[in-house]
Every structure is written in C-alpha cells, then in structure tokens.
Specification:
Layout lengths: L2 E9 L3 H16 L4 E9 L6 H16 L8 H4 L16 E6 L6 H11 L4 E4 L10 H12 L3 E6 L7 H17 L8 E8 H8 L8 H7 L4 E6 L13 H15 L2 H31 L5 H33 L1
Parallel strand pairs: 1-2, 1-4, 2-3, 5-7
Antiparallel strand pairs: 4-6, 5-6
C-alpha cells in the first residue's frame, strides 16, 4: 500500500533556489519506493519571482493530466524540471501552493502548510537545500523500523555560520533547557518527518506567536534524531537578521519559560522583606538607642516596601495569566 508524504516548503524570495531544489528533491524522492510525495509550497509574501515559479510547477501537474500532444514541454515551463515525479517515475509530481498576502514569517508558513497537509506523513524542509533531501529516505527508514512518531534532524556543526550567531544560539538552547519545561536539542532545525497523529496535535495549537521548536518538543511525541553537517545555502542570503533571530528567541522564551515570572516575584518579595527589616532596624535605633534617623530613610523604606509589594502582586497576577494561557 502506497503511503503519502506531504513536503511542506516555506518560501520567501527563493526564486534562485527553486530550480535546483525541485531537481534534487525530485531525484531523491523518486528513489524511495512505496511512498508518493506531494509538494506544498507556501509563498510567504515574496517580492521576487518565487510565486510565479511555484505556479509554473503547479502547471506541470495540470499539463500531465492533458493529452501528451497538448502537454507543454516541462523544460520550457521551468528550467531543470523535466524530472520524473517522486515515487511515480514518468509523471509530474503533485504540487499545491499557498500564497500569503504579505510576509508573515516562516512560522506562519509552516503552520499553514501543516494545516493543508492531509497525507500519512508530513516533512518540513527549506527550499535553499540547507536541509538535504537525501536525508528523507533515512528518516522514513528510522520511522518504519522504530515506530516513532517523528524523525527530526539536528546540525552537528555550524560551519559557515558567524561565530557570534553560533554562540548566541548555543546560549539560547542552554537557557531554554534550564528555565523551561521543555528540552530543545542543541542544533535542532525545523527539518523533520512527522506522522499524521503528530501533525494533528501541532495543528491543534493555534497560537499566533508561534515557536515551532518548542511546540515540537511540548506535544511530547516519540522523536528520533538524525545528525547532519551544516550545509551552505545554494543561492541568495539568509532572510534571518540578527534582530529577527533575537526576537524569535525572545518569543520562544516567553512562550515556554515561566522562570522570568517566578524571578520577578522572588525579587519583589525580597525587596519588600529587606525594606521591612531595614525599617525595623532604624525604628529600634530610634526607640532604644535614641539615635535620630534622617527623614529620607523612612521615605526610602516606604518606597521600597510598597514597590516590592506591588511587584510581588503583579508577579502573582502574571502567574495566573500564564496558567490561563497554558490552558487555552
């Protein structure tokens, strides 16, 4: 029985990568027996010719349904796209696409692709070939042999990546694993194969501010890992800026780590306690020793006491809101 795999490909200004991605992924998938692949491209508000190229890929599928005499030559539709369909030699692959009205980000694109997926499995991968299509066969083998719900890829090196970016990424993973309830494997990427059960669980979490690496870990399905060396982009440049990565990391930390709320509450409690102790000491000095205390001391004590109390109360309210958020 043939199983169906949806290949979810978020695209943002990837016109220079699509030709080669289509060719290499098609070659890799066509060698996998017993599986039929369908591409789901998500154009994330690209400003180049990405959407037009995706539409031409979809036209290949439509032309394959027509009479052979009427069907256009694939090479005239898109360069280097005359390859057999994955899992179905001699035919054009199934292609569908989603086009965003503007750039919503990779997280939204992946979620839209998962929503559109209805196959037995779904695999998420980038169009720049930093996620080697050849690994999909190994992922399938691992899922078949172990019966796991997902096989995910992790980079064992960050060759070619700026050192400061690599250092910040490692620090983020350590921080997340220490102060959150989830564990994110160092070097984990979005490239993974998931069964239908896991896909449904992820689609059932409709957050607007999404952090998929955390969601993949939070849903708790059995996941096996496959390692690969970091691969440079085949064309163009990364769309992630340093500010964008920092914002993404902050979103993930806020979404899955309650430690900041607890830290603020402890800080407020300690401030209140210290100010109360200082007030008692100054009061005893005045009453017992007879030492005059400057007026500003009592003012500072009151400010610190009520300031710390307000912080502690706000932290408690934040805890309640945080738990309500986790329950919705």
């Amino acid at each position: 029985m043939i199983k169906h795999i949806d290949v979810i490909v978020p695209c943002y200004n990837e016109e220079s990568s699509l030709d080669r991605f289509w060719k290499e992924s098609g070659e890799a998938f066509s060698a996998i027996e017993g599986y039929e692949f369908r591409y789901i491209f998500i154009d994330d508000g690209s400003s180049d010719e990405t959407l037009q190229k995706i539409r031409r890929l979809a036209a290949l599928q439509d032309s394959a349904k027509a009479d052979a005499s009427d069907a256009p030559d694939p090479d005239t539709i898109l360069e280097a796209t005359g390859d057999p369909a994955p899992g179905n030699p001699g035919a054009c692959p199934k292609v569908s696409y989603i086009s965003f009205s503007r750039n919503f980000g990779k997280e939204a694109a992946m979620y839209a692709g998962l929503q559109a997926s209805d196959g037995d499995f779904a695999v998420i991968m980038d169009a720049d070939l930093q996620h080697p299509p050849q690994l999909v066969a190994e992922m399938i083998r691992i899922v078949e042999e172990t019966g796991c719900d997902s096989c995910a890829a992790r980079r064992v090196s960050r060759k070619g990546e700026p050192k400061i970016r690599s250092a910040l990424a490692r620090a983020f993973y350590k921080l997340m694993n220490r102060y959150s309830d989830i564990e994110i494997v160092d070097g984990a990427v979005d490239f993974r194969l998931m069964n239908r059960k896991m896909v449904k669980a992820i689609v059932g979490m409709p957050e607007n501010q999404r952090f998929s690496k955390g969601i993949f870990a939070w849903v708790g399905f059995n996941t096996e890992w496959i390692e690969f060396e970091n691969v440079r982009r085949i064309a163009g440049e990364s769309k992630w800026t340093m500010w964008g990565l920092m914002k993404y990391a902050l979103d993930g930390f806020i979404d899955f780590a309650e430690a900041p709320l607890k830290f603020v509450g402890v800080l407020g409690g300690l401030t209140t306690l210290c100010s109360a102790v200082y007030f008692i000491i100054e009061f005893l000095k005045t009453v017992i020793v007879g030492k005059d205390t400057p007026g500003y001391a009592s003012t500072i004590c009151l400010i610190l006491f009520f300031g710390g109390l307000i912080i502690a109360i706000l932290s408690l309210i934040a805890e309640y809101i945080g738990r309500m958020y986790m329950e919705t």
